[in-house]
Design a protein that fits this description.
By secondary structure, the chain is an all-beta fold. An 8-stranded antiparallel sheet has the order 55-50-51-54-53-52-56-59, with no helix packed on it. The chain is elongated, with a radius of gyration of 37 Å. It starts with a strand and ends with a strand. Mean pLDDT is 92; it is low at 275-279.
C-alpha cells in the first residue's frame, strides 16, 4: 500500500548535515537537503535563480573591485565600481558613459585615493547626492553627483574640530604671535613635523588669566573686558560728553559671536543712571557697546612647519589675546583628533541630524558627532549648548574598535568585541549633557558593514562566518538577536563572508559572497520567522555584490572573476528579473546577452505578392517598410509576423532593393489578414549573433524564441542558430538542484529506519518548464510537457500539478531530487511523493 506525503514549504532552505537526524525540529519539515541555485521564497516555494546579464568588464582585469550602492532616491540609483585608485558608475543595467565632450562615449571615471588593498576597509554613508567615505589611512572624502555623467570627489571639509583631549601638562606651553591673520605658533617643547601641515590646532585662554563676568547695572570703563556665556567682550562705547568716563551695563547679556552689540540703550544719549536708593540721577549712562573678542579659545590651521618648536598657521577663529605673545603662553591646547599622526575615522553614519564618525587608529573607541544640522561643524561652545558637537569614548573592559554605526530608533555601535546602543535625554535626543552608551552583548562584529532590514540590523560576527540579527526586544528592554547560520552552518564552515547586500523586492533575500567565490543567499523575514539559506554557483568566482532599486524590483549587481580562454577576466554583471509574461523573456543563463528583434516603434511592414499567396507558388513577395530600416546585412535574416490564428509567418529576406523594400520568401500560405496589410506587430529574426567576445571559447546555453537551442561554443564572439529567432538569450549554463530531506512521516512510529520506495512524485509548480525528477541526480526522468501548442510555438509553461513516474528502489532515504539544467524557469510550490514503507 502506498501513501502520499506532502512538503508544502521550503522556507528553511538548505539544512546542515549535522541536523539530518533532528526530525524533532520544526525547521526539518520545511527544509531541504540541497538548495543549489534555487531561492527559498518567503511564501514557501522554491524558484530557480535567474541568470546574470553581462554589463561591462572592469577597468583592470588583474585587480579585484568592490561594488558600492549610491541611491539619491528610489528612481535615481547607481552602482559604483571602486578599483585601484579609480571609481566607475553603472545604472539601469549599463555602464554610464560621458554624453558629450572629448570623452563622449567613454566610461565615467574619477580618480580616488584608495588602492585595491584598501577597498575592503572602506566605510560609507549617504545623504542625498553626497556619499561620505571613510578609511583609517585617508581623510574622509565626499563623492557628489550633479548629473548622470558628472561626479566629483572632494575632502570632507570638517570645521572647528574635532580635537583631541585638551593638554593638561602645565609645563608644555605655546603661544601665538597675533590673534588674527597669519601667525607663528611657538612651543617650549618638540612637537611639530611635516605631518601637522593642514591640521587644526585648538588654543585656549591660559587658566591663570581671569576675566570678570558681565553683570547688569555695573559701571564699566572703556576697554574693560568681561565674560558672558563663556565669551570675552571689550567695552568700546565712547565717553559721554560732560559725564564721567563710565557707563552702566544694561539688561541684555551679550551673546553675539562677531562684531559689536549693545546690552542696553544704543546711543550716547542713553538713559541716565539712577543709583539704587538715590533720588537723583548720576552722570553715567545706561547701555554699553561690546565688541566680541573670543570664546575663550581660538582655532588655527597649520600651513607650514619651521622646526620642531615652530609652525606657521592661519587663524580660523580669533585667538584669545591672553594666548598671544610670549608672556601669555598657555598649556591649554589640543591638536586635531584626525590627521597623519592620529589616523582618520573608520566608521561613519548619520543620526539625529548629525554626521557621526568613529574609530581612528589612535582612538579606536571614540565617537565624534557634528553640531545638529551642521554636518561639517564640530565646534563647541563655552559653556556647551544642546546643539554643540559631541565627543565621547566607550568605556569597556577591552579596547574594542568601533567598526560600524547604524541608526535605528537608537544609534547602534558595533565594535570588534561588543554591541552598544547610544541613548540620550528626553525622547532619547542626544546632546553634550545627555548621552549614554549601554552595552547590549559581547559578540563582536567583523569589518563588513551591517544591513538594516526594517527595524532590525543584520551583522557578521567578528570572525566573519556567523550572521546575527539585532533588534529591540521589549521583554528584556534591550537589543538582542539570534544566530541565523546555526541551522545551515555547513555553508559557512571553514569560510568567511567577504561582502553582502539585501534585496528587499521581490524576495527579501540577503546575498552574501563567500571567500571562495560562492554566492550564498538567505531568505529572511523576521516577523514570519523565515530563515532559509541557499547556495549559488557559476562558472567563476563572485567577489563583490550590491543591490539598488531599479524599476519595480531591487537589482542585484555582482563583480565576478571568470577564466576566459585561459585569461582572468573580471566582469560587472546584473542578476535578471524572474518575472515574465512571455516564455521568450525567461532569462536563465549567466554572463549572457540578449537580442530582442520585436518591433516597439511605429514602423509598419506590408507584404505584397505578384501572384498567388500560397507556399510554393512562383509569385514574388515584397516586404515594404514605412520608414528606412533594411541594410545589406539583413539578407538571410527573417521578418516574423503572427497571423490571426496565432501562427508565425516567416519571411526570409533574399534581396534588398532599398532601405524600405526587400524581396522575401514565405514558409506557409499567407493568411488573408496579412495580405497587403500594414502591421506594427513584426519581429526581426536572425541566425548569427555577435558581441559575445567576453565569453569567447565558452560553451553557452541558448533560449531562442522560447525554445531551448543546442549548446554551442562561442567563436570569434559569434554563435549561429539552425533556425532564425527574434528573441535570443545566450550565456553560460548552470544547473539548479532541489533535493528533499530523508522522508519523515508524522506517525506514531518513525519510518526513518524503514525501507521506503517512491515510484512516483507529484509536484505543484508555477510557470515551469523542463522539469527533471528522480530519486537522485543520477536517475532523472523528464516531465513530458508539450500538448496542443501551435507549430513553431514554444512549449507552454505549467502552473498546476506535474505527475512523474520515476525510477525507484527500496532504500531508507525516501528523497526526491529535482534538477533544471536548461535555461528555463522552475518554481516548486510543493512536493508530494508517493511512498510505500516496508520493514527494516
Amino acid at each position: 500500500m502506498t501513501n502520499s506525503a506532502i512538503q508544502p514549504s521550503f522556507t528553511g532552505g538548505e539544512l546542515s548535515p549535522s541536523l539530518y537526524g533532528r526530525v524533532d525540529l520544526a525547521r526539518y519539515a520545511n527544509s531541504l537537503r540541497t538548495c543549489r541555485n534555487m531561492i527559498s521564497q518567503i511564501y514557501g516555494g522554491a524558484d530557480n535563480r535567474p541568470g546574470t546579464k553581462y554589463v561591462a568588464g572592469v577597468k583592470t582585469h588583474s585587480a579585484r573591485v568592490r561594488l558600492i550602492p549610491f541611491a539619491f532616491s528610489t528612481t535615481q540609483t547607481y552602482v559604483l565600481e571602486f578599483g585601484n585608485l579609480y571609481m566607475r558608475v553603472y545604472k539601469d543595467g549599463g555602464q554610464v558613459v560621458y554624453s558629450s565632450g572629448g570623452s563622449a562615449g567613454s566610461p565615467v571615471e574619477i580618480a580616488t585615493p584608495w588602492t585595491t588593498a584598501e577597498l575592503d576597509d572602506l566605510n560609507y554613508t549617504q545623504s542625498a547626492d553626497v556619499l561620505t567615505v571613510c578609511h583609517p589611512s585617508h581623510p574622509p572624502r565626499e563623492i557628489s553627483r550633479t548629473a548622470h555623467d558628472a561626479w566629483t570627489l572632494d575632502y570632507f571639509a570638517n570645521l572647528n574640530g574635532p580635537f583631541q583631549e585638551v593638554n593638561t601638562v602645565d609645563t608644555k606651553t605655546l603661544y601665538a604671535s597675533a590673534a588674527t591673520g597669519t601667525v607663528t605658533i611657538t612651543t617650549n617643547f618638540d612637537v611639530f613635523d611635516s605631518s601637522y601641515v593642514n591640521s587644526y590646532l585648538y588654543i585656549e585662554t591660559s587658566p591663570n588669566i581671569s576675566v570678570e563676568a558681565w553683570e547688569t547695572s555695573k559701571a564699566v570703563s572703556q576697554n574693560d573686558l568681561i565674560k558672558a556665556n563663556g565669551r570675552v567682550y571689550k567695552a568700546v562705547s565712547p565717553n559721554v560728553s560732560g559725564a564721567t568716563s563710565v557707563r552702566i551695563t544694561g539688561t541684555l547679556r551679550p551673546s553675539h559671536t562677531e562684531g559689536r552689540a549693545w546690552d542696553g540703550a544704543n546711543n550716547d544719549e542713553g538713559a541716565v543712571y539712577r543709583a539704587p536708593g538715590s533720588s537723583s540721577n548720576s552722570d553715567a549712562r545706561v547701555g554699553v557697546e561690546w565688541e566680541y573678542q573670543h570664546s575663550g579659545f581660538g582655532i588655527v590651521e597649520i600651513t607650514a612647519v619651521g622646526g620642531a618648536r615652530s609652525a606657521t598657521a592661519t587663524v580660523l577663529q580669533r585667538l584669545p589675546a591672553e594666548a598671544v605673545g610670549s608672556g601669555n603662553a598657555t598649556f591649554k591646547w589640543a591638536f586635531e583628533a584626525w590627521g597623519n599622526t592620529q589616523g582618520y575615522p573608520s566608521a561613519v553614519t548619520y543620526y539625529q541630524q548629525r554626521i557621526v564618525f568613529a574609530n581612528t587608529p589612535a582612538q579606536p573607541q571614540t565617537v565624534w558627532m557634528s553640531r545638529t544640522g551642521a554636518f561639517p561643524d564640530f565646534g563647541t561652545s563655552n559653556p556647551t549648548v544642546d546643539d554643540d558637537a559631541i565627543t565621547f569614548t566607550i568605556a569597556s573592559r577591552q579596547v574594542n574598535a568601533v567598526r560600524h554605526m547604524l541608526a535605528l530608533d537608537k544609534l547602534v555601535l558595533l565594535t570588534s568585541g561588543s554591541e552598544w546602543v547610544i541613548g540620550g535625554g528626553d525622547n532619547d535626543v542626544v546632546s553634550p549633557s545627555a548621552i549614554a552608551a549601554k552595552i547590549q552583548g559581547y559578540r563582536g562584529s567583523s569589518k563588513r558593514p551591517p544591513i538594516a532590514i526594517g527595524n532590525t540590523a543584520l551583522y557578521l560576527q567578528d570572525k566573519g562566518s556567523t550572521v546575527r540579527d539585532l533588534g529591540y526586544e521589549f521583554s528584556s528592554d534591550s537589543y538582542t538577536g539570534n544566530d541565523l547560520t546555526v541551522l545551515s552552518a555547513h555553508l559557512v564552515e571553514g569560510h568567511q563572508l567577504t561582502d553582502w547586500t539585501y534585496q528587499q523586492t521581490p524576495n527579501s533575500v540577503v546575498w552574501a559572497v563567500r571567500d571562495d567565490g560562492v554566492l550564498l543567499g538567505m531568505t529572511y523575514m523576521r516577523e514570519q520567522q523565515v530563515i532559509g539559506w541557499h547556495r549559488h554557483d557559476t562558472d567563476g568566482e563572485v567577489e563583490s555584490v550590491c543591490c539598488i532599486s531599479e524599476g519595480n524590483e531591487d537589482a542585484v549587481y555582482l563583480a565576478i572573476k571568470r577564466t576566459i580562454n585561459g585569461s582572468t577576466k573580471r566582469y560587472v554583471e546584473r542578476m535578471s528579473t524572474r518575472f515574465f509574461t512571455d516564455i521568450k523573456d525567461a532569462y536563465f543563463v549567466d554572463c549572457g546577452l540578449s537580442y530582442d528583434g520585436r518591433n516597439t516603434g511605429a514602423t509598419t511592414m506590408t507584404l505584397t505578392s505578384s501572384g498567388a499567396w500560397t507556399y510554393g507558388s512562383s509569385a514574388t513577395f515584397t516586404l515594404t517598410a514605412s520608414a528606412s530600416y533594411f541594410v545589406t546585412g539583413d539578407i538571410g535574416s527573417e521578418i516574423h509576423i503572427t497571423d490571426e490564428d496565432g501562427l508565425i509567418l516567416r519571411l526570409a529576406i533574399t534581396a534588398r532593393a532599398s532601405a524600405t523594400v526587400v524581396t522575401v520568401t514565405i514558409n506557409r500560405d499567407v493568411h488573408s489578414g496579412l495580405r497587403n496589410s500594414a502591421t506594427t506587430s513584426w519581429a526581426h529574426a536572425r541566425k548569427t549573433f555577435s558581441g559575445l567576445d567576453h565569453i569567447e571559447g565558452k560553451t553557452v546555453s541558448i533560449l531562442a524564441d522560447g525554445h531551448v537551442a543546442p549548446q554551442q561554443a562561442v567563436s570569434s564572439g559569434d554563435i549561429t542558430l539552425g533556425v532564425a529567432a527574434a528573441v535570443v538569450h545566450a550565456g553560460l549554463p548552470y544547473e539548479s538542484d532541489f533535493e528533499t530531506l530523508d522522508l519523515n512521516l508524522n506517525t506514531a512510529e518513525t519510518v526513518r529506519d524503514k525501507q521506503k520506495n517512491i515510484p512516483a512524485v507529484s509536484m505543484i509548480v508555477r510557470k515551469s518548464r523542463g522539469i527533471f525528477a528522480g530519486k537522485d541526480e543520477d536517475n532523472l526522468v523528464e516531465y513530458k510537457q508539450r500538448s496542443n501548442e501551435n507549430y513553431d510555438d514554444p512549449v507552454n509553461t505549467l502552473t498546476g500539478i506535474a505527475e512523474i513516474r520515476i525510477p525507484s528502489n527500496w532504500n531508507k532515504n525516501g528523497r526526491v531530487f529535482v534538477r533544471q539544467s536548461d535555461p528555463l524557469p522552475l518554481s516548486i510550490l510543493a512536493v508530494i511523493p508517493e511512498v510505500a514503507a516496508g520493514g527494516a
